[in-house]
Structure formats: structure tokens, C-alpha cells
Design goal:
The protein has 992 residues and is mainly α. Strands 1-2 form a two-stranded antiparallel ribbon.
Amino acid sequence: MVIGSSLISMYTKLGLVHDAYKVFNSFPHRNVVLWNNMLEAVIEDSNSLPQSSFFMKMQQEGVHPDKVMYISILKACEKLGLLKEGRLIHGRIIISINEVDSVLGSTLISMYSRCGSLDDAGKVYEDLACRDLVILGAMIAAYVEEGFDQCALELFIQMLKITDRPDKGTVFYVLRACSNLKALQYVQLLHDQMIRARLESDSVLTNTLVDSYCKCEDLVDACQVFGVSKKCDVVSFGIMMAGYIQHGFNTKSLELFLKMVLTGLRPDESTYISSLKASCNINTLETNHCIHYLIVHDGWEFNPAVGKALIETYSKLKCLEESYNVFRRLLDQKVALWSAMMTSYVEQGYEHEAIGIFDRMQKELVVLDSCSLMQALKACTMLKDSGEGKIVHSIIMIHGFDEDEAFQSSVINMYLSCNKVHEGLKVFESSPQQNVVTWSVLISRYAESGCSLLAFELFNNMLQKGLQPDRVIFLSILKACTTSGTIIHGKFVHHQIIKHGLFSDVLGNALIDMYGKNRSPMEAQNVFDRLHMPNIISWTSIVAAHADGGNLHGALSSFETMQKEGMEINVVTFLCTIKACSNASVLQEGRLLHSSCLEFELHDVDAIASALINMYAKCDIVEDAYAIFNHLSNPDVVTWGSMITALVQHGREFSAFKLFNRMQAMDVNSSTAIFLCVLKACSNVGAIVQGRWVHDQILRSEYHSDSYLGNALVSMYASFGSMDEAHNVFSKLLAQDNFAWQAMISGFSKQGDAESVSNFLEQMQRSGLHPLETTYSSILACCSHSGHIEKGPFYFNQIRNVSWISAEQHFNCMIDLFGRTGNLKAANELLLSMPGNPDPVGWISLLCASNAHGNLGVGKLCFGNTIQCLPEFGGGYVFMSNLYVDSVLWKDEQALMEQRKSVEPGNKPTETYNKMNDAYHLFRIGDTGSLARHKLHASFDRINWSIERAGYVPHAWTFCKALSVVDENTHQEISQAEDAPLFLEYTTEKAN
């Protein structure tokens, strides 16, 4: 037995556990000593023996262990993680041993703790009659191992009542607990106890103490302990380096690394990883190359953890080629390295390369882990590649990750990013765990995609299922309420936030923004008043809320209060406040803000300049807006757009053309908004040549297929009457929507081409689109001007059958149609049957028809209603005067003229723009001092001569027709102008 016991001990120490087991089995009868020796072998190499059969054999042989043997068995159970067997042994201990001492008790606590049953460990602790330092130390260790650091610290405080000198093990575990809790005062207390117990020489405790100081953010004491330590090993240097990095002292960390190398210590895995991290943080590629050289020199290049750190470091330094070279040279390309390479590509925006790595992993049969699958999913999301995403999703399901919360959320997010809403919902609905995270992803994606009502419906469904929304979900749904334009939804969400007790300053800011976007500044102010500590975001949001809600003085008052509170004003705050001053009533405040921008040196910021330009433009001071623009050295495209828009809005189209040409000459890429504005300017002044040039610029730009620009081009060419060009653009549109069809129909209508109008209307309806109000107006106007009396009522009845179309303008078109055909009775009846009060347009139209057909009775009725609505309308007096003259009622005509003088309407001269020699010029009737006018007059003479030479006589019908509709002063002005007939015949009139 003695020899056998010695042989077992010898083989165990040599690591030959199987040989020890053979010796053990060679004895038919084994005593307690042999079992104890064999148990030591089991503890030494737990993987080499059939564990379950070993314990069963011990029980079958009826071995009665003593206390020493029980301790060995419990340690074996602890090492092997055999909780069930450990409980069985514990039961036998209770039966066979009267009183459990501190050694056996601490072993039981340690066994239960390591086997993951802290409850059992706690019960052992509670049942022990004597809880000495050993038991307290064991329980403290158990608490720390299981993450109950606060419990461990409380138990340590109890221990201090017994002794002020805890043992090494207790100090080690309590230091770990203090590190996690950041309990600096207890770390300092333990440090003092270590000094009194003369434990500073213990390298493990010293390293743990340094680590604790670092994690408690006391770098001074950490450096002091590290500096006085006489046994600074690689671990010590590694801990101190990590501490420096944690506090942002990356250069210090690298200096310490260099010192360690110079002292002859060889860096280990941890120190190399820390040095790479520090090098990456200070963005020094040269230092990284030096560390890489040392790694290769010391043979750490093929270490998976170091290799992974190298890959990540080169990736963050944007050296993807070197990152890939490290990856390729690794002998053992483990899945973690593949994942690191994929992560590098995804983080740097190389999603295609990340997918390529993922494909290689599958071809080389690398076992995919959760990290690689997650990175593949991220790459598909960023690429919006639903095809590859479906493949990744199927692999996730095969590997069983589909039930993981993070993967469920990421898969749903991927499908929604690819606009595959149905697939995203399918994944969500099939999920057995529809928790707050997955609901949050779905709601936030719907909100971001503009599907506000669907997001709100999901939110309601979530509440009905009894799930408690968190702050993230509330932020997402508030964003949806911001874009939905429905204040009811926002108020409901506000109520839910209060109900769930989740109101905070962050949610308060979101509520202010929501109420502001829904034009409810008072509700926004109420929320603002409830904020605990309003920050710059809060103040900016309330200023914007008042500005968006039209409460200009509220916005300015908030801005002023914000300054008094000492808040630092940023660009966004200025933008919101400037927006509030975009009204002539607060122009003075706007000028003061402009001065503040100059004071803060923000006037050169493009966003501020653009906002100031918009402000002055809306206050009708274009000159000041232009001055701001010209002051900018390099305005961005938004600022160019703001200035061009301001000019067009104020009727300065030719200045807008010059500015647009200047922008093109400076190679500033235009935007959709600028192109739309310039096209509108071309339409306004009939600048067809400029319009064609802009069209060419659009075709050369990235916006050549933009639907808005396509519609605008169709509308522009139609306004020129160039229907062939309009149709050419229309036919090339990717999607012919209502607006494109409307532009074509309106263009043909202005040309009086009733047949084309009818054909396009039929095609539009066949394509499944319904005409707009303006489309029907164009159709009826065409019927009126082309004399298609029978089609007008037909289309009008179609309109009246469509409930959502407002019929007022269409009534006016029909009144005009009846008036032109002389059916004044029908026109009058239709006018009086209009829903609500007839508008002035209808009365004027019928008055014009009465004048044309000499119907004095209807004319009087119309004139009275017209003047009641528009007292200064001069045309009404002219029409009525003509009726009195035709009826030889001179006294009535004279009285009418006297009445008109008392009204004194203000008249503006007729003016037009014409292009000459690639430049546009403004012409007014009676203006004789313009050189351009004389050139144009000469052109008219040449045209006149050509007409006469061809055998025709130029007539002044247009001139005569104009005389019949203008007031007396303008009549005299035109008559005195020698070129009036030619002017009106050959130019396009524009009434200002």
C-alpha cells in the first residue's frame, strides 16, 4: 500500500495520470490513503480520467472518507464543475461529520461558488455556527467571483470588526471588488493594511493594487505604488500601461513600454496589445511599425490575440492593405481573426470587401461565429443588398443565432434598410421573443423612413400587448409624430411618457421639438418649463418651436432669456432665431441678430449667411441679401440657391440668370432646388433660350433623371408654347405623374389644341391617374377658348361627381365658356348657383361677356358685384363705360367716370422683357430714352418692310384690342407712342 501510494504520487507529479490510475486499479482493496492520492491526481489532471465512473466506484466500494478526503473530493468537484456530485458529498458530510469546521466549510463555499451556485454557498455560510476569518474570506471570494461586489465589500466591513489585518486572499478579492465599485477610500484603506502587514513585496497584491488605483481614476497613487515597487514584472508594466491608456495618456503608456523593453523585460501578449492600442489612439503609424517589428522579432506575430490587435490597429490607422497582409500571414487564421478583418473593412466603409472575406470564410469552411455573422449583416445593411442579406440571414438561422435579441434586431434593421418591409415584418412576427429591443428597431426604422402612421400603429400594438416602452422607443415614436403632422398622436405619446414615469430632459427636448414641428409653441413652452436643467439643445428647441409656430416674439424672448442665463449660443440657435425674424414686423430685431453674427464672427458660416439672405429676402430687402452674398468668399450650393431664389421671388429673374451663370462658371455643382428655381424664372419671363441652356446643364448633371426637374421642364416648355419639346421631355420621364400630365394638358390648352387636350386626358385616365383641380381648369379653359361648347358641360359634370375637388375655379371656367358663346343667362344662373358666395373672377368674366354682347342689364348686375369686391378694379369701369356708350347713355357714362375718379386707382405702365444679342432688356410703353428700344424699333421696321414686300398689310388689331380694355390714362399713353401698334403686335405683354 505504501509503495502503491508512493507510485501514484510519483506518476501524478510527472503528469502521467493514466499510469497512476493503472497502479490504483491494480490494488483489489484500496484504503483511504490510496483514494486520497488518486483524488490528488484527479485534481491535477481532470481531463485524463473517466470522472463519473471514478466517483461511482468510490461509493460502490463503501469507502468512508475522513475530513481530509472530503476536502480533496470537494476540490475535485470544484475543478470539474460537478455541482450534482458536490451536493451529494455535502449530504454525506452532514451525515458523517458532527461539526463542519472552518476549513471544510470554506471548501464547501468555494466548491458551490465555482460550480455557479451562490445560493448553496450562502446557505452553507448561514448554517455555520462559527464564522471565522477563513469562512468570511471564502464568502468574500465567492461574492466577488459571482459579481456581487457590494455584498463582498459589506462582508469585508464586518471582517474589519474582527481583525485589521486580513490575509492575502481576502485583500486580493476585496481589491477586485473595490475596482469594480470604484471605491477609492477602501482601496486606500487596504493599501494601508498591506503596508502594516508588510505585504507590499507580494507582486500579485501590488499589481492588483495598481490596477485598483487605475480603475478608481487615481493615477497619482497608482504611479507611486508602481514606482516604489521593487518587483516590477511584465504584468506590472502591462497594468500601468493600461491605466495610462484608460486615462488618455497614450504617450506615457508608450514611454513605459519603451522603458520596459530597455530594462530587458520581454513584452507579453497583454503589453503588446496595450502598446498597439496606445499607438493607434495617437495616430502614429511609424510607432506602430516599430511595435510590429518587435512583435515579429519576439515571435508574437502568429499569436491570434496579437494578430487581431495588429489588424484592428492598422484598420483604424486606415492602412487596410497592411491590415490584410497581417491577416494573410497568420498561420492559424482563427475565426476571431477573420471577424477582426471583416470588422476593419466595415468600419472603414469597405462593405464589398467585408462581404468578400465572408464568402472566403465559407469557401474555406471556417466555422462562423456571432461576430463574423453580425459584421456580414452590417455590411449588407450599409450596401442595402437584400439578396446577400437573405443569404446571411439563412446562415444565421442554420447556426441557431436567429433567437438572439441582437441578431433579430439586426436582421429586421437590414430588411427595412433595403426597403423590404414585408420581410422585416415577417421576421418580427415570427420571433418568439418580441421584446422591447425588436419593437424599438421596427418603430425607429418606420419613423426614419417617413412611415409615421405605421410607426404609431406599431407603438399602439406594443402597448396593447402589455410591453413597457423605454426611453429609446419614446424618442423614436416622437420623431414619427414630428413628421406626421398630427398633434393628437404627439399628445398621446406625451401622456404615455408621464404615465410610465419616464419624463427626462432628453425626452423633454424631443417633446419640445415635436410640438414645435406641429406648430404648437405654447405646449412646447409648457414642456420646457418642466425641464430640470435646460441645456443648449433645450433652448435651441424652444426658440425653433416658437419660430415654427409663428410666435416670433416668443422666439426672440427665449433667445434673449437664453443669453441672460449665460448659455453659450451656437450656430443652430442663431439659425432658429434668424428664421423667426423673417418677417418685416421684426426686421429691426433681425438686423440686431445680423450684428450679433458679425460680433461672434459667424457671418462667414454658409448656413448663417443663407439664413440671413432668406431673412432679408422675406422682408423685401433684396439689396441687403445681395450684399451678404457678395461678401462671402466661397459660398456653398445652399447659399447660392438662397440668393437665386430670393431674386426670382422678387421678380428679378435676369439678375438670377446672371448669378446662375456665375455659379456655373465657378464650377459649383447645382442642386435640384436651384435648377427648379431657374426653370421657374425662365417660364416667368419667356426666356426660351436660357431655358434650353438650363435643360442642357440638367442633362449633364447627376440630376438628369430627377422627376421634379422633369416635370418642371415639361411645364416650362409648355409655358413657351413649345409643345414638341415639352412632349419630348414628357416621353422620357421615368414616371409620368399627375404633375407631368397636368403640364402637358395645360400647354395644349393654352394653344387651344382641344384635340390634344382630350387625347392626353384619356391617356392619363387609362394610366390610372386622376386629373388634378388645375388639370380640369385647363381643360375647361381650352373648351372655352376653342369654342367646344358641347365638351365643356361634359367635363364640368365629371368634375362635380368628384367630391374632393373644389369646384369654384371650374365654375368660373364654365361662366367664361357660356359668356363667350353669348349664353349670358346660363352663365348668370351658374354664377348664382356656386357654392358659397360667387368670387370676383366669376363676376368679372360675366361682365366682360356682357360688354362683348352688349347686355346692359347683366352688365350692371356684374359691375355692382365686381366693384363691391374690388373697388379699385379699373377694368370694370372700362367695361361698364363701353356698355353705356353703346347704349347711348352719356349721362350714366359721365357719372361712372366721376365715380371712378373718386376711387383713384393706381396704374402701372405695361412692360415687357425682350432678348437682344444674348442679353435681356426691360421695355415700357412711352419710354423713348433706351438705346435697346431704338434697336428693337429698327427690327420692327425691318419686319414691317418684309411683310409689305410679301404682299401683306400689317394690321393694328392687337393695338386696337388693347385700347378697349385699358384705362383712360394708359389709353392716352399708348396713343401717344408712335410705335405702339408694332410694340403690342410683336412683343409679349407682361402686366406688373
